[in-house]
């Protein structure tokens, strides 16, 4: 039986298991040894939703005078996120924000974005970076790791350290299991040092839960910020499951843009097919068809030599170890073609896919590149 088809059981086991998770979270929150802020990496998927649920519930059980630790629920918008995931994320985060405010909980709901000069469109259409693939995946670092790490680092510099609360689980994948095992508790506590961000500690409250337990719990209890988790079940059902996890380090990056992480960027050319978007269309959401067509086209032109410059952006010819020439970025002509196609996809889709600020910066980059090309042609 697949997890998404689970019959929702209000079994004693689920209740007992959940009470123990929430009481551990409460205990950790009230730890006397440190009061560093908690930063929950919130993707809107099932695991991070369950972690936010546990923390929210634990906070409600703590007397107001003891709620002395800040909790941040932080989601990242790559700006090319699957639009149906963003819709869900917007809805849930605004409910959490409102409920936290009404209940006077020390929760801040935040959203991070990549810097303007590092967005998918600025790099792909502005600078001509070839669309990402397994061997040249320039996107994860810039679109996901840097914005979230930036938020964490800011709080480390304010407080001396920060605790990153994640919904990662041992049962999720072999890769995750290895990562978790490689960072076993260092200080006889529930916290592990982050492998790349100094001053950050990782706390994984649901690390030992199975996928079925996660779904059973979400199906058994109402969301503490109001309503049920029904929309989440529908999201997974329509998209046939899987989400792009919160990615915080390079060792976890391989999980992004794989068949295990199907809620990624709608532009993702690392995967063979965007199964979640396709699943969404198959579930009757035909408005997403232009996005899938654009992504497929983008993937198909990646290695067309006519659309790639011979030299890299630094002006050098590059060869691999076998002496094979490695083409440079997309030509300006190809970048213009991609932009035209994107704008017509945007019109067909009926919603913004690229921001005005990105368009301005792209035109600035093209002007500089053209100037350089003309200078080089004139021997300047
Ligand atoms: S989902 Fe794909 S495009 Fe987005 S960051 Fe991950 S690998 Fe890159």
UniProtKB/TrEMBL annotation:
The keyword Zinc does not apply. Keywords: Transferase. SUPFAM superfamilies: Adenine nucleotide alpha hydrolases-like. GO terms for molecular function: transferase activity. Residues 40-222 form the Phosphoadenosine phosphosulphate reductase domain. It comes from the Bacteria. Pfam families: PAPS_reduct. The keyword Metal-binding does not apply. InterPro entries: PAPS_reduct_dom, Rossmann-like_a/b/a_fold, Sulfate_adenylyltrnsfr_sub2, SulphurTrfase_DndC. PANTHER family: PHOSPHOADENOSINE PHOSPHOSULFATE REDUCTASE, SULFATE ADENYLYLTRANSFERASE SUBUNIT 2. This is Sulfurtransferase. It comes from Caballeronia mineralivorans PML1(12).
